[in-house]
C-alpha cells in the first residue's frame, strides 16, 4: 500500500522558497542543539557551527525579497508550505518537551 499523497506545495517565488528552506534548516539545527532533547555535545557543536551559514542564507533570502519590493510576507501561503514540508514537527524539536515526557 502506498503512503498518502502529500498536498501540493503552493507556488512560491525563488526567494520565498529559499526563505522556507533556510528557515526549516535552521529549525532542524536548533532542534539538534536543544539541550532538552538530548544528544551529544559534538553534535550540538556541529549544528551550532552550521547555524551561522544557514542564518546567512536566511538573511540573504529576506534581503532579496526586500530589495525586490516585497515588503510583506504572504503568511497563508508560507504557512501552507511549512505544513507540507513538515514544519510543525520540525518546530516541536526546538521547544522544551512536556515534563512527563522527560
What does this structure look like?
The protein is mainly α and 102 residues long. The chain has one domain (14-92). It has four helices and no strands. α1 (14-33) runs antiparallel to α2 (41-67). The longest helix is centred in the middle third of the chain and has 27 residues, at 41-67. The mean pLDDT is 92.
Radius of gyration: 16 Å
Overall morphology = globular
Can you give the helix content as a percent range?
Answer: 55-70%
Structural class assignment: mainly alpha
Largest β-sheet summary: none
Number of strands: 0
Helix and strand sequence:
HHHH
Q: What's the number of domains?
A: 1
Percent range for β-strand residues: under 5%
| Distance N to C terminus | 35 Å
Return the average pLDDT rounded to an integer: 92
Poorly predicted ranges: none
Total number of helices: 4
Name a few traits of the molecule:
102 residues, mainly alpha, 0% strand
Summarize the structure.
The protein has 102 residues and is mainly alpha-helical. It has helices at 14-33, 41-67, 75-84, 87-92.
